[in-house]
Amino acid sequence: MKTLHLIRHAKSSWDFPDLSDHQRPLNPRGIHSCEIMGLKLVEADCSFDHVFCSSARRAQDTITGIYQSLPVSAPEWQTDEMLYTFSSYELIHWCRNAESSINNLTLVGHNPAITDLVNELSDSDLLNVPTCAYVRLECDIRNWSELKSGCAHLGCFIKPKMFMK
C-alpha cells in the first residue's frame, strides 16, 4: 500500500499587485494557519519522509512555516516546478513517476488540482480542500505507476479552522 499526503498551500497575500502569481507570499492568516497545522499534521500521521513542494513562493512558505512549528528538527524537502500546477491530471502523472521504493509521498501544492485529485483517486466527494488543509489518501497499489481513479481511501482530512478559537 502507498500513502499520498496532500497539503494545500496556506492563504496567500494579494497586497502586492506587481508580484506574479508564482511570487505571492503568505498573508498573516496563512502564517498563523501554518503554526497551527504543524503539530496537527504530526498527530494525523502525516509523513515528512519524502516531501515535494510546488515552486510557488506561497507553497514553499507553507512547508517552511509548518516545519517551524514541528517539535522536532525540520526534515528536508524538495521543490519541483512540475508541482506548480492546477491540474489533477498533471499531479497524477507526476505521482505515477515517483520511485516505487517510496511508500509515503507528501505533496504541497494548489487548488483545484488537490481537490480534484482527492475526488478522482478516492471514494470521497469533497467540494473544496481549503488553504493549509491536509488530506491523507491510502492507496491500494504496490507501485505509484498503478495510481488510478478509485484506488484510494480518504484516511484523514483536517483543516486549520477545525483548531482555531
Structural class: alpha/beta
* Quaternary form: single chain
* Unreliable parts: none
CATH architecture, please?
3-Layer(aba) Sandwich
Order of helices and strands: EHEHEHEHEE
Main sheet record: 6 strands, mixed
Strand order of the largest sheet: 3-2-4-1-5-6
- CATH homologous superfamily caption: Phosphoglycerate mutase-like
User: Mean of residue pLDDT?
Assistant: 95
Residue share in helix: 25-40%
Overall body shape: globular
Detailed description of the structure:
- By secondary structure, the protein is an alpha/beta fold.
- It has one domain: Rossmann fold (3-Layer(aba) Sandwich), CATH 3.40.50.1240.
- The protein is built from 4 helices and 6 strands; from the N terminus they run βαβαβαβαββ.
- It has helices at residues 28-43, 57-68, 88-96, 113-121, and strands spanning 2-8, 51-54, 78-80, 104-109, 134-139, 152-158.
- α1 (28-43) packs across α2 and α3 packs across α4.
- The model has no long low-confidence stretch (mean pLDDT 95).
From the structure above, extract its key features.
single chain; globular; 165 residues; alpha/beta; 28% helix; 4 helices
Question: What topology does this entry show?
Answer:
Layout: E1 2-8, H1 28-43, E2 51-54, H2 57-68, E3 78-80, H3 88-96, E4 104-109, H4 113-121, E5 134-139, E6 152-158
Helix pairs in contact: 1-2, 3-4
Short structural description:
By secondary structure, the chain is α/β, with parallel strands linked by helices.
